[in-house]
Structures are given as structure tokens and as C-alpha cells.
Design a protein that fits this description.
- With 174 residues, the protein is α/β, with parallel strands linked by helices.
- It is 42% helix and 13% strand.
- The protein contains 6 helices and 5 strands.
- The protein has helices at 21-31, 42-48, 56-66, 83-94, 118-142, 167-173; strands at residues 9-12, 35-40, 71-75, 100-103, 150-153.
- It has a 5-stranded parallel β-sheet with strand order 3-2-1-4-5, with helices on both faces.
- β4, α5 and β5 form a beta-alpha-beta unit.
- The protein is globular.
- The chain starts with 8 loop residues before the first strand and ends with a helix.
- The model has no long low-confidence stretch (mean pLDDT 90).
Length: 174
Amino acid sequence: MQQSQARPVAIVTGASRRIGIGAAICRALAGSGHDIFFTHLQEYDRDVSVLADDDGPQALAEELRGLGANVADMHADLMDPTTAGEIIARCTQHLGAPSVLVNNAAYSTTQNWDELTAQEFDNHYLVNFRGSSLLSLAFAKQFTRGHGGRIISMSSGQNQGPMPTELAYAASKG
């Protein structure tokens, strides 16, 4: 185990891209003295997003180490219900028990309402609700310090305006 007792450990999901929210959260936490365990799913970025960053996780890890953080990362698909336990176990193994969880990973596709399918709704639900909920439960079960832990779940930009081509996303985040 690499962790120094003085540094708290934070888990951040969904940090595949150096320009993404997950990477920014990792930087802020590393800058405030946290060690960082982050997850990524680059095939999602390649399949769904135009912002894929093939070297993102490796470059982010190097950058965070440059900020003084101990860092570990993991390829993680939150559609798989066993992933939550694996994230907690690997974080604890590599950095120590986490005291912060940031549920940032999200599944989002765009289509018109008349193109939505049951599978699209299921994919959004599996990541945006079930995956983050299972991870929050796994985090809470391992947290034995009584106080001081934090779970932060990112919502969305729905308050910025209508999202007519992201109905499944909006429903799963609600």
C-alpha cells in the first residue's frame, strides 16, 4: 500500500478525458491534498462521444502525480453490477480506504423521442442510477470512521435549458 496516513483517498468515476469534468475534479482533489483513484471507460468515449482521448488516463495519472498525489486508476464499466465492489477493493488495495466518492461517470446518448428504445433507457439507468447507487452503497459499507466521509453525485445541466434529444439521460438523472 502506497498511501501516507496524512492524505485522504478520493475515488472519482468517469475520468477518461483530460478535458472532462472527471479530470478537473481529480485535479482539484489532488491539489487539496488527496490521493486519487479514478475510473475510465474509453470505449464508451470512442463509441458515443466525439471527445475520445486515447492517452487521457495515463496523462491524467502523470499530471496528478506531479501535483503530489499517489494515483491509481481502473477501467470500469458501471453497467456491470460487480464493478462497484471491484472499485472499492482495488482502491483500498492500491491507496487505502477511501473517504471521498465522486460519482461522475455518466451514460448519455442523443436521439429524438421517437427513436428511443427500451435498451437505451436501460443503458442510461444501469450507469446513471444503478451503477452510482451500488458504488455509493459499497463505499458506505467500507467506511468505518463514523464521520468525515463524503459522497458527491454529479447531476446534469438540465437547469441550463431543455434537453429534447437527451430524454433517457434526463429521466435517469432525475
